[in-house]
Amino acid sequence: MSAVYYEAGRPRRVMADYDQSLVWSVLLLMAIGIVMVYSASIAIAEAGRFTGNRAHFYLVRQSIFVAIGLFAAALAFQVPTMAWQRAAPWLFGFGVLLLLLVLVPGVSREVNGARRWLPLVVFNLQPSELVKLFAVVYAADYTVRKAAYVDSLKKGFLPMLLVMLFTGALLLRQPDFGAFAVITLIAMGILFLGGMNWRLFAGLLVLLAVGFVTLIVTSPYRLQRIIGFMDPWADPFGKGYQLSHALIAFGRGEWLGVGLGASVEKLFYLPEAHTDFVLAVIAEELGFVGVAVVIALFAWIAWRAFAIGAQAARLERSFQALVAQGVGLWISAQAVINMGVNMGVLPTKGLTLPMLSFGGSAVLANCLALALLLRVDYENRRLMKGLPV
User: What percent of the chain has pLDDT over 70?
Assistant: First the structure.
């Protein structure tokens, strides 16, 4: 929405109340996601007993998830960012409590050896998705509160490190290495943007690199993923199966794709085609052009998030600036990781593509995060007009 006033008898448009290009980019990504989830899931939905052999099973559920997410986003947009800041420690504490509940036998749901979901009445909640949002808000609030100690190891850096180590340990117990990597990146990125001492930051990077390598070497299934990533064609029916079929999908798509709905790889060849590897189906059916459109939309969302954050910083709204940039960092980093996995640039992580992959918890968390980003932009614009927020 935007207002219009008259100057010398001519209408003149003033600044819109929110970033309309950001809203349309998000809605377009979600629309593409609904279409591609349906296309990628038809075969497995028709063959599955859980789905009742209904081809439209995942289409209906994803549409419901998006509707719920947009409704929750509309409500979240009404909440002032100062209220988010006051609630930040409580929200993060609630997220940690959910992660603890996931590890309780009989309370959570186990799938393929991973215990990541809490069964609710209508769908399964994946707490790690909400914790990503809570980590953005908490890290931004922590950085603002500890602004005077950003150069201090004991008072500034160490408390945050201990909190993140505890959270990371809970995520690795599930195990959910992908969520652990994203949440670590969010916390580090916000601390760096908040002015953390570069020597401490460099030391943290070294420790993280050593930690990630140790986790991979000491975990047989993660090590097998790395081996399969290095040369998927060496064992195309074993360790390299998923990646080799993703690469085949990209190769078949060429410039314009084989046509919407005409993918062969989704026909029980490519595992997780409607979740982690939906981009491979997009590449096969819509080709280079389809993938380029998706990348361009994510790039625009990231650009606008950092621009909104920079504007908030110029208005001396530090918490809002870090939240906006944290949301941009989260969405763009997770998108880049998922795309890298699909294209064989990064080893398999088990991360979905934001706003596109099937999954209710991820859609809900993404919608809430983007609503918070729009709220920061809305308040920025009102302040620039001299209006209260």
Answer: 93
For residue range 155-186, what is the model confidence (pLDDT) as tens digits? 777 888 888 888 888 888 888 888 988 998 99
pTM of the model: 0.91
**Residues facing 103 on adjacent strands:** none
Say if residue 22's pLDDT is above 80: yes
Q: Which residue has the tokens 């990503």?
A: 132
User: Which token pair is 131?
Assistant: 């914790």
Could you write out the three-class secondary structure of 211-274? HHHHHHHCCHHHHHHHHHHHCHHHCCCCCCHHHHHHHHHHHHHCCCCCCCCCCCCCCCCCCCCC
List Cβ neighbours of 306 (8 Å cut-off, separation of 6 or more): 324, 325, 328
Instruction: For residue 155, give the DSSP letter.
Output: I
Burial 185-202 (b: 16+ CB within 10 A, else e): bbbbbbbbbbebbeebee
Residue 27 has pLDDT above 80, yes or no: yes
Q: Name beta bridge partners: 109.
A: 117
Give the HSE-up count for residue 324: Cα atoms under 13 Å, Cβ half-sphere.
28
Tokens 């968390």 correspond to 365
Give the integer Cα–Cα distance in Å for 138 and 324.
Answer: 13
DSSP 315-355: TT-HHHHHHHHHHHHHHHHHHHHHHHHHTTSS----PPPTT
Does residue 118 contact residue 109 with C-beta atoms inside 8 Å? yes
User: What is the pLDDT, as a whole number, of residue 14?
Assistant: 47
